[in-house]
């Protein structure tokens, strides 16, 4: 069943929290030094506060809903306008209006069922309508789920690598 994609609204906190915890479990199992399973105590309320917070016109929060289960996925994205100093920058994309997908999570039971695709397509369409000419996102290289999703299903290409090093005292 194709999910209903809609704007996030009050009352969606429980579903958002479930999807968020599933994502935390998935990634924490792969990269525990970077990702943790979020504390579930108060998590739905934390999402409700974020849902009720005022958002900028260039910020998008949408959910995927499958009745009767409810919310099974979330996407958060923003339109980034060209940088004022883009003519001095090396990266060409800084001179373009960009869609930046900051968050995409799907509840475990609904992964690989079209929910993530529907959310990404909705965000990309919103970005195009807002003038975006390129979309960017990031994910963990150790994910056998998200790398094929972005590259094979959604048509994204690797552009950069985020490097990380713990700075332990010793």
Structural class: alpha+beta
The number of helical runs is 4
Strand order of the largest sheet: 1-2-3-4-5
* Rg estimate, integer Å: 17 Å
The main sheet comes to: 5 strands, mixed
Query: What is the ordering of alpha helices and beta strands?
Result: EHHEEEHEH
End-to-end C-alpha gap = 54 Å
Question: If you average the pLDDT, what whole number results?
Answer: 94
What proportion of the residues is helical, as a percent range? 25-40%
Low-confidence stretches: none
GO molecular function, one term: acyltransferase activity
InterPro entries: Acyl_CoA_acyltransferase (IPR016181), Bact_Acetyltransf (IPR050832), GNAT_dom (IPR000182)
EC number: 2.3.-.-
Pfam family, one: Acetyltransf_1
Explain what the structure shows.
This protein has 170 residues and is of the alpha+beta class. It has a domain at 53-153: Gcn5-related N-acetyltransferase (GNAT) (Aminopeptidase), CATH 3.40.630.30. Helix content is 30%, strand content 21%. Strands 1-2-3-4-5 form a five-stranded mixed beta sheet, sandwiched between helices. Helix 1 (13-30) packs across helix 2 (43-52). The chain is globular.
